[in-house]
Amino acid sequence: MKVKVEDVGACRKIIQVEVPADTVASEYSEILKAYTKVARIPGFRTGRAPLAIVENRFAKDIVEEAKERLVPQYYWKAVEEEKITPVAIVEISEVIFGKEQGLAFKATIDVAPDFKLPKYRKISLSKREVEIGDKDIDSTVERIKANFSRFEDANDREVRRGDLVRIDFTGTCDGVSIGSLSPDSAPIGEGKDFWVFMGEPEFLPGFSDNLVGLKINDKKVVNIHFPADFRVKSVSGKDVIYDVTVKGVRVKIMPEMNAEFFKKLEVDSMEALRSKIRNELLENAKHNEDLRLKEEIAKSLLEKADFDLPKSVVDHETAASARSIVERIATQGATREQIEHRKDDILSEATKTSTDRVRLSYILSRIADEEKIEVQDAELESRIEILASRYGMSVARFRAEIEKRDGINKLKGDMRAEKTLDFLLQNSKIK
What we know:
Elements: E1 2-9, E2 12-19, H1 21-38, H2 51-57, H3 59-81, E3 86-98, E4 102-111, E5 124-125, H4 134-147, E6 150-153, E7 164-173, E8 176-177, H5 186-189, E9 190-197, E10 219-225, E11 239-253, H6 259-264, H7 270-304, H8 311-331, H9 336-341, H10 343-371, H11 377-390, H12 395-403, H13 407-426, E12 429-430
Parallel strand pairs: 5-12
Antiparallel strand pairs: 1-2, 2-4, 3-4, 6-11, 7-8, 7-9, 7-11, 10-11
Helix pairs in contact: 1-3, 4-7, 7-13, 8-10, 10-13, 11-12
């Protein structure tokens, strides 16, 4: 076998492979014999036709199968012989195979970058003091109370902030029904027995304020001006008129701070609850500060190490990042037209974040190699159990799902990067 390797760009190589006919003769013979066993040729029983006749009848199929079997086989032999570690196969081209001329092909591959590792120990960091004040605890207590609250019908009083209000509504814009303006305008055009929360987030901009003070069976004409960047393009920047009828009111009832309430929270008093909240907020704040410091470490490493990256890896990461951005802004209410209008900005953002992410992954991997940082099987199993529980799946099912997408290796790689960042934080210079 002859192998020639050519550098054709940053992290990209072309491997030319030539395998003589006598080297691949046995593989070709095996494929021909396999065809002979099942070939149906008039005048011969199945499996009894002479090799020459079978070869002549199925020559094209035999050659294609030989290519499919032999190209991967000799590709891996070539990269092993040349001590190359591909990160992606970009293209297999110019494949030639014949019984007399043997096998030849070109493989275009991307490889990991070769770069000088920056100094990574004793990175200077400025740590912020973590403090938890009484206001933080007070707001958390209120959120906990709100989580245990319930709504009850209040038929004898006016609508107030914080209530739930059941309404019928119809909207028009320039005398035309809103629901007929565009496919995505129907949900804000008309509603029957529709519940609106008198608070944030608002159903429509300024809508809730117009309902405060009304009572059941009251009717009101509500004028709404939609901002220019409103998610429904057909009404953005326009004035809309809504005819609204109040049909029901529910008031939020907060729980009593008694022994039964404290028992649900696994404490026995308000003092104990506040102490528990303080400790949890403090741990969370410390965790967030560690995350911020790790981001500073990553930023420092990226500033110190600028090197070429394999295009295929960056392209793959960019595509995934762009999909994630689109999914995020779509859940925030962006329409298909708005997403299309922002596609250049989305691609630019995805490219920047992906390039940094790929570069950082190579840096952290090299540091992990230097420091012999590895993820143990027990650590991996523990993480899988945690993730399976979070997604409400059995461990076996979760493992099977991520194995379909080579997710085990990715998860292990992510954990190794996390451990490396932990190591760098422990060995940093904190001011």
